[in-house]
Amino acid sequence: MRTDTPQTIYRKDYAPPAYLVETVEMGFDLDPDLTRVATRLTLSRNPESDGKSVVLYGDGVQLVQLRMNGRELTRRGYALGNGVLEIFNAPEQVTLEIETAIHPALNTSLMGLYVSNGNFFTQCEAEGFRKITFFPDRPDVMAKYKVMLRADKKKYPVLLSNGNLIEQGDLGDGRHYALWEDPFKKPSYLFALVAGSLVCQEETCTLKSGREVLLQVWVEEGNLDKTQHAMDSLKHSIRWDEERYGLELDLDRFMIVAVGDFNMGAMENKGLNIFNTKYVLANPRIATDADYAGIESVVAHEYFHNWTGNRVTCRDWFQLSLKEGLTVFRDQEFSADMIGTDSGRAVKRIEDVRVLRQAQFPEDAGPMAHPVRPDSYVEINNFYTVTVYEKGAEVVRMYQTLLGRDGFRKGMDLYFERHDGHAVTCDDFRLAMADANGRDLSQFELWYSQAGTPRVKVETAYDAGQEAFEITLSQSCAPTPGQAEKKPFHIPVAVGLLDSQGLDMPLFLDGSGSAEAFTTAVLELTESSQTFRFKHVKEKPVPSVLRNFSAPVHLDIDYTEAELAFLMAHDSDAFNRWEAGQRLAMRRMLALVKTVREGGQADAGAAGPLHDAFRATLTDSRLDPAFQEFALTLPSETVLAEQLDVVDPHAIHAVRQAMRRSLAQALRGEWQIAYQANRTPGEYSPDAESAGKRGLKNLALAYLVELDDDAAHRLAQTQYDNANNMTDRIGALAALANSSAPGREQALARFYEDFEQEALVVDKWFSLQAMSRKTDVAAVRELMRHPAFTLKNPNRARSLIFSFCNGNPSQFHAADGSGYEFWAEQVIALNAINPQVAARLARTLDRWRKYEPALQQKMKAALQKVAATRSLSKDVLEVVTKSLA
Ligand code: ARG
Ligand code: ZN
Which family is annotated (predicted)? Predict the structure, then answer.
């Protein structure tokens, strides 16, 4: 909790540490009520600094004893205040012995050492290590660790830490010990320990070099039937990193541990990854296709961090995207490769871009907008954002688009050659890419330093006489907090030209020097405006611009509805086929929103061209069902809202609903056929092909249920009753929950009874109701009184509170402001328990200025109420202050 005004930390103030740590030895006497931690550090002066003070950070830890070079330090030898312990005029070589006392059972922040369901876990990124002991807790201090764990043998039979197990044994008094040593230098944020009653699935794996490694997935007793998919995902990740990047696992043992109370998805601690149970546990009974895919990508993400994050780490937290953007890019590519097919790769790309548009574009346009490499922060945990992660991944992807796959690989090789074992910056990464390819990427730096989503405007001209087609690209970027003016970015724009048959034309780019024809050209836009000229263009083409979403920008391009339908049907670039359909739908929906705002009806009946285009997609049997599912899903209410200057969530909701009903009505027969054609009888398998079928089938069901008639109710009920997997079961339940089917209440009650024992499924049960159109603020409050609800568990809080506030816009934005009052209450309640989770929820209202005036007023009042709360954490304070600024 805050005691004084929080400070802003600036990137420009970076200074190397005065002392470096060589070795860390720790001894833990684990007890939930009072754990004692004895730490011995050897430090030496850093030649890169002329500081003479040893600076250690501590947060909420009690200092029991402090000795330097064998002598106890008295209060005259050091200063302690504000979380900083400073030892002045320390000698060249220092050995510190620090004893601290902490209270894991009382730690509800889930940072540092805490207890979850009776077991001990740690989370040290970003600054959690200082909640365990005093330490130069900053990522540019890398050291070797030796860790002794001691605990009651009955209660905590399993004792784990980073690296290799050196020794274990009994202590005689009912306690036992384990000694772990990590052979690699690491920053303190990668430290981890786990102690408790856990069981594991283990396998050995032979690496490319022939070395054998031990792989373990640790879970609570009773969950061993849910670990195989995580284990398989780990093995696939190991193989992929060897093949694609020549990167081998450097440890003899690699462990994954699942924990039910966790703030984020997972954590890449060296050799001891700690995961939210949501990203480990799966079997057909409890996990959906999306869960299976999520597990595969998060297991891969954390595993890939071993090289991009751990071996090469961040100099300071402003460089967070150095490891996160890069590692997200790597996990995206991995997931795409795991599907294997071209159409599967495209679907994965569509999914990733949807996340970007749904969450990152709004962030980039709001009061919390920040560059991929931020310039300042109050609380670093607030900067684990979609901008740092997902936009960061787009920035990394652009290198690959500009340099080609081989060029990108050369850059990666040079990056490791130069920086293995070091803490570096985003500039170092960019320079490795540039140097390995003999390219000047200095302008590319603006992607790291400028916030905001650039807008690229496209104008074209065809000269039949000259057989020339010109594309003029112009860029701009709206101001963001602290950045009024933007310089032009270096933007790769992938372009193709379609002939009247819908086939790709061979491209001859004027001035490209190459006589070879290709069908996609990557235009490099580096100025405010540039014209590119294609030669030998025999007829007026339809351009396909920003193929595969080659840059994270808004694209302004004027297409007729006929051209969009044409692209939707023919573009060889699957991403742009999807995009054309989205544009077509968006255009209709925006026009309808305008009508509704002017007092008209949300009559979607006249959406002729859209119905035809959707029908063509739905009935084209050559298409991949997964692609069909995405192509037939309308832009979300959030994405629609982004297109408007003034947001009226009720008008948006009404229009999207009307559109869904009209598509259900107009294509009823086709939906029914698709439903039947995409059933997946027999044993469940989460592979992409079957998952795609289930996805399309459940989309068909969701559309049919929009008609809210007996036939649809029966279809949903039958699917529910016969489901042999969670994807089908929850798909049916969601359909029922949004309908007035007679079996609605009974199905919800039965689902709870059947899965009461499975926390992750109970989360789904809350979340589904929180997002149902039938659930208003009063109903959410009622659900909070359910015995299974608790704010203390982040997954549970997210399942109900976040799902409602972020996933049910029409109810959350109730005209009387009751949703906002509810939001404020929950932010305040969470603030006292878990500042990180509270600050995430606080983000929900950060775009309040975009809403219509009546709602704005009420949102502002709710924000002010939170801002005026006593003992607000700096996490929440930063978010609400910036939102109100
Ligand atoms: N490095 C982790 C990951 O993305 C995220 C951990 C963030 N934790 C936090 N408390 N901010 O894989
Ligand atoms: Zn990560």
Answer: Belongs to the peptidase M1 family.
